[in-house]
Each structure stands twice: as C-alpha cells, then as structure tokens.
Amino acid sequence: MAGDKTILVLNCGSSSVKFALFAAAGEPVRRFSGAVERIGGPDSRFWTREDAGTVRSDERLTIPDHADALDKILTWIESGSEDAALGAVGHRIVHGGAAGSRPERITPTLADRLEALAPLAPLHMPHNMAGVRAVTARRPDLPQIACYDTAFHRQMPPVAQMTGLPRRYADDDIRRYGFHGLSCEYILEDLRRRAGDDAANARLIIAHLGNGASMTAVREGRSVETTMGFSTLSGLMMGTRPGDLDPGILIHLMRTKGMDADDLETLLYRASGLLGVSGLSRNMEDLLESPAPEAAAAVDLFCYRARRHLAGLTAALGGLDRVIFTAGIGANAPAVRGRILDSLDYLGIDLDPERNGRGETRISSDASPVCVETVETDEEAVIARHVRDVLSD
To answer: Confidence band (pLDDT; 50, 70, 90) for 4?
Structure first.
C-alpha cells in the first residue's frame, strides 16, 4: 500500500459500529477513533475523536441499520482532508472457520463462505458481514481484509481442537476454534515490546474479560489451549452467555419445555450469564454497585468460574509464569481481578492489593513468582497491521 494511504478498521457489533482510522506509512499510526452507537434506536449517537483525545464530533441522530451507520462513517471520512488517503478497510470477523488461518482479502466467494458461518456466532457474524456488505455497496473500489478472531488458535495442538464427538463430525469442521485471538495477538506484541522475547515466550494466561470473555494459555508465543471452543458460548460465564453448560440440560429443556433451536439460541446467547443469573443487568459495573443478593450471586459465579478455568489452563502449560488481564472487565475491575485470584497462591500468585486497586500494569508483588499484569488491548491496531501486510504481499 502506498505510503500516503490510510486504513479504516471496522468492528461491527449488534448495536454499534466502532471504527478507527490509521495512517499506513510504515507502522500504522492511529489518527481517529469513533463509533456509531445504539443503532436501530431513536437516540443513536455518532462520535469521533483524534488520537490525542480531542473530540471532533458528537451527534445524536437516528441510525436505523448498519448500512446507514457505515454511510455516516464514510461520509464523515470523505468530508475531511483524510478522504484522498482512504485506501483499504480491515474488518474484525469473529469466526473464520477451519480455513480462516490468516487475514485475507475479501472476495465474493469468501464473503459467501463467511456468511455461512453466521450460526456459529449469531451475536457477531451477521453484523460483521453487514459491515462488509455496506462498504462494498458504498465503496466497491476499496480492498477489504478479513481479520479473524479464531486465526490465532488454529495452531493449537490437535488434541486441544478435538470435541469428543465421533470422528465423522470433525470432517464437517466441527471442532474447537477459540476466539479473542486478535486481542491475544496485541497482548503478546505489547509484552514483547515491554519485556522482551523471553517474557513473550514464557507460560502465559491471557484473560480477556468483557461482555464476551475467554482465557487463553500461550506458550512459546502460540495458543495451546483456550476456554472457548466451537462457538462463542463455552468456557467462562459472560454478560448474556452461560459459559460451560451440561448439554444434558438442553436435551431436558427440549423435552420438558418444548424448546426448539431458536428458543435455545435466544436462551444461551441473549438471556443467560450475568444478566440471567442476576435478573438485573449484564454489566459488571452495575452488578458490583447493586445491593441485591442476586447481583452478588452473579458476580460470585463469574469469579468462581474464571478462577477455576485459570487454574485449569496451567495444566496445558505445565506451569505458569505470567497472567495478563485485559478488556473491559479485566483491565478496569480490580475487585473482580482480586476475587478471581483469591486463593491461587499455590500457583505462585501473590497479588498486591494496593497495586491492583490503582490499576497499575503490574499488580502482583515484586516477590511473586508469577507476574500478574493489567493491559488495555488494542484489536484495531492489530487489524491495521494485518491490512498493511496483506496488501503489501
């Protein structure tokens, strides 16, 4: 890509489109960030700010769908001096399937394949692909690059990708994929910059805790195990998803409650997790502030499940050298971090409560055999680099 080009990075969610604009000469440098929020509602919001933090725009308006959201974003970009530099678009695509092992340019054939993966990540893939379609309709001249959240885990050991179902199902690509790989990539890159190759090649657990949550065990810079599997449902409890669940419960609900596949999809993706257990909110901050015992029970279950999975991942690593918390809850909720790490001193974790409360990068004591850190992730920066590299190749 020519040095004067810029890269637009899009992360299309169910009710929002987050975006960032990067200068692509050399190492991509963020110029602007922004979002269209509350898509489909009467009080949608469009905001942008410069990398230095200066707010460039903040509007309340009506945005009925993702096509209109992308139209608003592209119109804003084209109205500024950066218009002539817009050269490519990078998309966060949550599920790349068995063939999605690396970022790649989106063609009509690839778009059709990705559309077919929507049932595996119904909270994400339809909206990810809506962004692709909107850009294609508005700017068919722009190269679009798919960057997969699953790609980081495609090199997991074969045993970690197996499901325990009859082998014939693996031939239909029913396997454990793992997610939040773009976040893991950033955390590893950041660690390598801060602490060097030895630290990045050690035995790590990356705890990406947000409305969607997973933990990944990394050794020698490669994913060796992760808590999510075939879909974005398994592993940790999340904002509206239950995490690990005995599949016998689903059979029971089908037989005794008359639930079909659509009912179960709604239950598992939209009505469980923190929201379902508390009956109040999917937002961890709301639950931590609530005096309701149901809120406390939801937080207790979230932390218990996370503590259990963290300890379990050490078996795949053969020990533990470093834990890194990231994403909305992981980087910003010291009370949750503290409760997850409680009683894990047998793993060599000695949490420093004062550092944890202040949200310092290192929140373990200096004497702790295992280093525990908090780091803000930056998936957009990873996507921008992938776009640059794909187009350079």
So the answer is: low
